[in-house]
Amino acid sequence: MTLCSLRMTERLPMDRSAATKLVRAVAGGDRNALGGLYDEFGGLLLAIGTRIVGDRAKAEDVLHDVFLEVWRKAHTYDPGRSSVRGWLVLRMRSRCLDYIKSAAVSRRRTIDIDGRTSDADPERDADAAKVAPLLEQLPTEQRQVLVLGYFGGMSSREIAEALAIPIGTVKSRIAAGLRKLRADVNESDAESDAESAPARPARRPGEKDGAP
């Protein structure tokens, strides 16, 4: 039986301290605690993964890998840097981005300033496979919020909760990241156009400008 085959039960959201205790228990080798983390956050991570990779079955494979990684690296979790939810979400998106780049998955998405994805005009969207490498060039704090919105479909409020930062900070990072990302996309498109433009024929000796 894999983690993804476990049945998730309906419950009230787990508070931050309880989630932190579960991670510490996992670090101590408690498999039941790992199952508790899956029951609490597995549905969220699977939904994010499915949005990113566009395939539920593949997202389940990625989710399983994420929890295997949690089992091995639970001791690295620092509650002072993020919530357990944020820590898990970032691990999930990282694994999914690795899949996107390796499989060259192409999904057209766009993001607005509120941090939520929506269907968009295909001529204005960038392919996910094209945008992913550009995202990796952004500062970490900008990349995190854009990925959670661009691929994960999370709102600014949801991102703020996941990363344990003010919503105003989320919006400012989104705005700055989008400016840089759009500039990089435009530059990439310009370079592609220049490379595909036909070369001008060489001028024959003695030929003047405008001569047939």
Q: Main attributes?
A:
mainly alpha; 3-stranded antiparallel sheet; 8 helices; 3 strands; about 60% helix; disordered N terminus
Mean pLDDT comes to: 75
* Low-pLDDT runs: 1-11, 104-126
Q: Note the main sheet.
A: 3 strands, antiparallel
How many strands in all?
Answer: 3
**Range of helix content:** 55-70%
Strand content is under 5%
**Shape assignment:** globular
What is the helix/strand order? HHHHEEEHHHH
With strands numbered from the N-terminus, the spatial order across the biggest sheet is 2-1-3
The helix count comes to 8
Give the helix/strand class. Answer: mainly alpha
**Rg calc:** 22 Å
**End-to-end separation:** 76 Å
What does this structure look like?
The protein has 212 residues and is mostly helical. Helices cover 61% and strands 4% of the residues. The protein is built from eight helices and three strands, in the order H-H-H-H-E-E-E-H-H-H-H. It has a three-stranded antiparallel sheet with strand order 2-1-3. Strand 1 (108-111) and strand 2 form a beta hairpin. The longest helix is centred in the C-terminal third of the chain and has 30 residues, at 167-196. The radius of gyration is 22 Å and the shape is globular. The N and C termini lie far apart (76 Å). Residues 1-11 and 104-126 have low confidence and may be disordered.
